[in-house]
Amino acid sequence: MSSETLYDKIWDLHRVRELTGGSTQLFVGLHLIHEVTSPQAFSALEEKGLSVHSPDRTIATVDHIVPTTNQARPFADPLAEQMLQTLESNCKKSGIELFNLGSGYQGIVHVIAPEAGLTQPGMTVACGDSHTSTHGAFGAIAFGIGTSQVRDILASQTLTMKKLKVRRIFFDGELQKGVFAKDLILHVIQKLGVKDGVGFAYEFAGPAIKKLSMEERMTICNMAIEGGARCGYINPDQVTFDYLKGRRYSPKGANWDLAIKWWESLCSNESAIYDDEIKFNASEIAPTVTWGITPGQSIAINSTIPNPASLDPGEQQIALEAYQYMDLSPDRSIEGLPIDVCFIGSCTNGRLSDLQIAAKIAKGKKVAQGVKAFVVPGSEKVAQEAEAEGLDEIFRNAGFEWRKPGCSMCLAMNPDKLENDQISASSSNRNFKGRQGSSKGRTLLMSPAMVAAAAISGCVIDVRKLFC
Amino acid sequence: MCDRCQKTLLLKALLTNLKLMNKVPLFPTGPIHKVEGTCIYLTGNDIDTDRIIPARFLKCISFDDLGKSVFADDRIEQKGLHPFDQIKNQKSSILLVDKNFGCGSSREHAPQALMRWGIRAIIGQSFAEIFYGNCLSIGIPCASISESCIKSLTKAIEFKPELLFTLDIDLEQIICEHQSWPLKIELGMREMLLSGKWDATTNLLQEKEQINRIKNSIPYINDFN
User: Fold this and answer.
1) Rg of chain A over CA atoms, in angstroms?
2) Domains of chain A by range and CATH?
3) Are residues B55 and A413, on separate chains, in Cβ contact within 8 Å?
């Protein structure tokens, strides 16, 4: 059993009491809600005659269903409009602050909370969305929950949870030029699989991680769940503190110094015990692209789609399903595969630095003929900052569409969808069958730089070739 | 699609609707000791929640209508051959699955859709974590089973689909007339189901003072003191 890790320390601090059967009642320090997984929770609360326990620890935004072209109200889609109206009314009734459209603070829930300084080291963060693991980048315990648990947290600011084991994933070396945080996490999921993290929190550590910016760290923790781990986290350090300094909800004045002192004390001790430890060398990671229908089915850009014989017997059946669905065959390279749509955005890679690197590649070039390419900033703030730098112009001039913030085609709950069996190069997090809005649509996950390179080339290409 | 296929599909849709109107047993309440019924087997590892309920069906403010859309895209693709469309499975309440069932999105719409279709328990080699917790919070037991046992269990239902089973939560077994298979139901899940405390809200609110004590002791809520 782990001890003295950041996970253990935060867990102990938020423990209300032990419940039957080894579960714990855990206090939630920051509850983030959105329009998709909260309406049924509010209804259930009302049925039980309960009110929201801690509106002061709850923040709402709207992201999944918002259109990214015309955001005028009422939305063209009446169901989407109904969902936002329900959220607005629930927040108003319960005194919950809503980062609504046009407020300057709206955006994807996992983008807006960190940029507002809401997410801080030492917190427990919960949200009815599996990518809540993102917030672990700050040294928080952050995890996705279902709607019944949203109800429980609204009612009590606590939930029932079993303590996870802790696996430290240690990275020596450093990422090479043209290789990004997205490649690192895709590589980890490829090596450990999509199930191996079940029952674990992942602590990402080592010199390669220390060198990463907060936005890169968020990309890594965001996809911990794709490896089965409900939480991923990184010990807070100077990079974390520099990011948080001066943000809207960050501690101010004398509290700032007290906060840093406390945050530093939370880091996993040298003598910490982990349930498991794995080492990688970040220098050996190449740009990585998925070829299949799970985020674990990926390859380095310069290698070939695996042959079933080379796979673990448990992975063979889903590989066969993937070849058929993706219309790809084993032993071929993914480089050169023509693509139809390029999507840059999502809670994984929709932040300013993601757009900056994509713009750097797109600058002065043109999107290949026949390719639809669009950029969806992760939040209104990201959009403002990108526009202030002229990134929108760079993208538009290159033939990309510049959209308004939202989850967009990561899960296609809004009008942004693949059609028929189109192939997308996507900076999002899931390549499941039908994920991007068409039951035959095919998704290749990759870094935003690789997506931009694919948009320009019209096919999957090693972005390092464009850097030279 | 030919006329005949279309008619078959329509018939299937009609059957599903009839089932939803008349046959779905009451949703779980209170202590749960046993789940009885026939089994439906869905083969394949890593079946994600986008497949269980595609995102377009999440545009709703209630779970009520999700039952008919469970596995919507897989069912269209398999043109009536999907286990959830086969006539022999229409009354099934125990779902058998392989490894890592329910991975991906945290949407509770996935177990809600399964429950509203008629599923009352899931037996599988392994489950994704958030899905597992979501099932517990609506009173759907998730029991794990070994690879060899699931093989023999599915063989038994292949031979006789109408075979009636009892999933006994206390005994951690699935039992039919002449045979039983061992299951593992995690202690926490078992105790919560047996005691009825899986419906967690009331239980969580029992110690309101303790919740507030913790809230008042957390540094980031109290000016880092």
Assistant:
1) 21
2) 6-161 (3.30.499.10), 165-236+265-284 (3.40.1060.10), 288-467 (3.30.499.10)
3) yes
Instruction: Report the alpha-carbon distance of residue B16 to residue B38 in Å, rounded.
Output: 16
Domain assignment present for residue B132? The answer is yes
Nearest to B207 among A17, A86, A152 (CB): A17
Q: Does B116 touch chain A (CB under 8 A)?
A: no
Residues B188, A48: C-beta atoms closer than 8 Å: no
CATH of the domain at B213: 3.20.19.10
Considering the domain boundaries, does residue B225 fall inside one?
no
Query: Could you state, in chain order, the average pLDDT of each consecutive group of 10 residues for chain A (468 residues)?
Result: 97 95 95 98 96 98 98 97 98 98 98 98 98 98 98 98 97 97 98 97 98 98 98 98 98 97 98 98 98 98 96 93 97 97 98 98 97 98 98 98 98 97 98 97 98 98 85
Q: Which residue range forms the structural domain that includes residue B198?
A: 3-219
Q: Which of A145, A258, A434 sits opposite B224 (nearest CB)?
A: A258
Contacts of A128 in chain B (CB under 8 A): 106, 108
B155: exposed, middle or buried (C-beta count within 10 Å: 0-12, 13-18, 19+)? exposed
Taking the C-alpha atoms of residue A409 and residue A201, their distance in angstroms, rounded to an integer, is 28
Residue B224, domain member (yes or no): no
B28 belongs to a structural domain: yes
Find which of A130, A151, A190, A297 to mutate to test the B interface (most B CBs within 10 Å of its CB). A130
Establish if B88 touches chain A: CB-CB under 8 angstroms: no
ipTM of the complex: 0.94
Residue A4 gets the label, from left (phi > 0), alpha (psi -120 to 50) or beta, of left
